[in-house]
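Morning, I've got a small favour to ask if you have a moment. It would help a lot if you went through both lines with me. I owe you a coffee for this, so here goes:
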Amino acid sequence: MDCTVRWTGPSGMTFVAETGSGHAVVIDGAPEGGGRNLGPRPMELVLAGTGGCTAYDVVLILRKSGQDIRGCDVQLRSERADTDPKVFTRIHFHFVVRGRNLKPNLVERAIKLSHDKYCSATAMIARTAEITIDWEIVED
């Protein structure tokens, strides 16, 4: 996996990340840090990537389990250290899984498998952050 991050120039703190799969993401800082708020902050992308990684796993596992899944949202709430490096110290994952006749034990199993076995991002984040999880099923 490759990625190139380029600073757009001396007028601010905006960067463009180009991924190996050919996608570009604008990254920027807060105005008080010299940014212009043109894109997410780097640590917001880490949090979003972690949520995307685990949601991907949960959907894939539930599909393979024969569940009629129609949606999966993950709301992440985080806390960071007060001093540098300001790593994540706590992250709460709240899953909202939508579908028809979803079996709660299979939803719980999919989430647990993602966090305990498959999600690389969660495995890395868990080295510095306490991770808590809850979930709900919404009949679709």
Notes: The mean pLDDT is 97. The CA atoms of residues 84 and 113 lie 32 Å apart. The two ends are 36 Å apart (CA to CA).
